[in-house]
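Hi team,

As requested, here is the filled-out complex form for the zinc ion run. I kept the field names the same as last time so the parser does not choke. Let me know if anything looks off before we queue the next batch.

— J.
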Amino acid sequence: MRECFELRDTDAGGRIGDLTVPRAGVTVETPALLPVINPNLDTIGPRRLADEFGAEILITNSYIIHGDDDLRERALEEGLHDMLDFPGAIMTDSGSFQLSEYGSIDVTTEEILAFQREIGSDIATPVDIPTPPDVSRERAEADLETTQERLDIADAADTGEMLVSAPVQGSTYPDLRERAGRHAEGTGLDVFPVGAVVPLMNDYRYDDMIDVVAAAKRGLGADAPVHLFGAGHPMMFALAVAMGCDLFDSAAYALYARDDRYLTVRGTRALEDIEYLPCSCTVCTEYSPDELRALADPERESELAAHNLHVTFAEIRRIKQAIRAGNLLELVEQRARAHPTMLDGYRALLDHAAQLERSDPVSKGSFFYTSHESARRPEVLRHHRRLERLAVPDSLLLTVDRSAPDGGYDDVWRVQPPFGPFPRALSKSYPLTAEVPERTDRAALAAAADGVARLAETNPDAELTLAHRGWPAGVLERVPDGVSRIDLDTDET
Ligand SMILES: [Zn+2]
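And here is what came back:
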């Protein structure tokens, strides 16, 4: 078990955890949001972030502080916590972002790590190489090699109680991301940012973002705290948490406010287009949209930033509650409806259902079937696997109706879309207690047919009969020929 991170609850790939930050003397509950503080311009001061918004941790850039004579002197003299006036944990970035933007920086990993330790950072970052998406494989591999050398330097450095992050790179190559995750896991480092995903998010490539995170997670251990570096829009938090991300940093709240943009969990709105405020935070209850627009510049920016932060923290709390209640995937399904690219992200998440299934609890509160994507949830996959282990009698009727046709079978099992067949004894156990719409869709029928097929394939000697109600030919094709069929609507076999 990793000493600094303890998992308490899980749902799909999402988890509630405790990140112990020894140097700050605090424990941060994850999923957590780290507001980004630019030491040169703070739209909302760190003290206010803690007191009004409940921020337990923030992130600032040690490279900016290092490069500014005044800030550097103050940070070395007062320490980061006093300089920023923040009582929680402080993570520092290293200049990797500046490296990716400007091509070079003037510090080494050894220097910036020592500096981060001197100014009192609680979680430091080495200078990794953020490789953008879609570069050549040669470049991604060469960059990754450099990043791994830097992580090894960081691992060997004397960093005391300070936690050190180990960024996972590898561009859009899943095998490189997985390899990078495995290498990072093998170091003695503590927190694992999945790096260089900002370009994916700027282009709304949420499906590719999910594939990148899923690959990194395969290399990392289950108990590794994962930071989705640069991801600050609340719209995609639920999706990213469901894939196993624990930490997010938001510069978005301030950057968007600067451009008069208003964040919601369903996307971003231009302040000029808003007629009604869909939010009950302190800002949105105090002002009408016209009053907000009429505010002078610094005040309008600050009020918008405050709203953006309120929405962002509220979404983190909503996600934690969903994990506790066991309905995180229902929340992801709702968020996926906000934009077609978010739906792509959710569909990509379900491509990794087998990976999610490993951390998904065996029993939860409820399973609501709310879209045809629900048919691909990890619970359905797990039920199909469980079918392989169930004892099956010589002749068995599988029926979609509670009342079964009398045919002298050894036993009768229900068939419930999307899960498929199950013996009566399991009917009260999760997920077969699912709430499913009366008007079943084809995806649910197809998944149920796959369950029947799984049962038939693992019990080739059993005589199986499937009693369905008007299942389309395309669905029935998924069931092996050896299974007899009865259509209860027409009594045809
Ligand atoms: Zn608001």
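Two things worth flagging: Residues 297-325 form the longest helix (29 residues). The longest strand covers residues 14-21.

Thanks,
J.
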